[in-house]
Amino acid sequence: MKDENKIIPVNKDLDVIKYDIDNIKSLIYTIRGQQVMLDSDVAMLYHYETKKINQTVKRNIQRFPEKFCFQLNEEELENLRSQFVTSSLEKENYGGRRYLPYVFTEQGIAMLSGLLRNQIAIQVSINIMDAFVEMRKFLVTNGQVFERLSNVEFKLLNQDRKLSNHEKNFEKIFDELQKKKKEEFNQKIFFDGQIYDSYSLIIDIIKTAKNKILIIDNYIDDSILKMLSKKNRDVEVVILTSQNSDISKLDINKFNKQYKTLKIAKTSKFHDRFIVIDNKELYHCGASLKDLGKKCFAISKIEDRDYVEKISKFS
Questions:
Q1: In this structure, are strands 212-216 and 34-38 parallel, antiparallel, or unpaired?
Q2: CATH: 3.10.260, 3.10.50, 3.40.50, 2.60.40. Which one for 21-137?
Q3: What is the pLDDT of residues 60-102, one digit of tens each?
């Protein structure tokens, strides 16, 4: 008997466009205080027809509470029309649809991805989750700038300035928004099951390195290579680990052929886990990098310069 909870196979006849993380971010909107994606955009990314995506949700409605998926009202849809960039709403005639579109939150898309059969869903889901994380950081990091943007708009409108001057001021503010800002933190606790969130934070730390990364962890395995593949080009990596670490020379050689330069040394001098970035920033990790999110643990930034210098000398 056919499993009715599974979505039908991918429609290979659809006009498919591959989207990277930056393009996916343009498909994320803020509605009712939540970051969401339209059902048609989700269907486009997963290579399905919109109606099939929504049919799957209805067949599994108990898995999609309102915080995962909800239907837009007329006012919300009209507000969206002014924001269309690469959204599939730009291509679809929603006036001819018999229902208002649905939107999915990050949790809703994660739930939906588990019901899909095709191989496309794996990489697409990763890119979508990464896009949501980056958008969330963007909004948090630039919250004050958005507030300034609203104030500038209010002042300009009330002073009845010319449109050209109005646009110039907006351009300056948007230029400021585009500057990359690193999200600072002193410490963060992750609980059992927060595997993706903890993994994302480690990746963010790795991406900040400009010259060198030192990782001290007695129980690494080849999963560390997947994290290090996100590093900036030409950043040197040194890993200090124990004899018990589960990573082969073959894996290391393959990594170095593509990403360069990774060095691994054995030591028994450390008990805890540390990450040092450019000999300037020191992070203490309460769990091995291969076990992130499996149990409750903390990541802390150590500000004492003396400790940073002492740990860095081991590399």
A1: unpaired
A2: 3.10.260
A3: 999 899 999 999 998 888 887 766 544 554 444 444 456 789 9
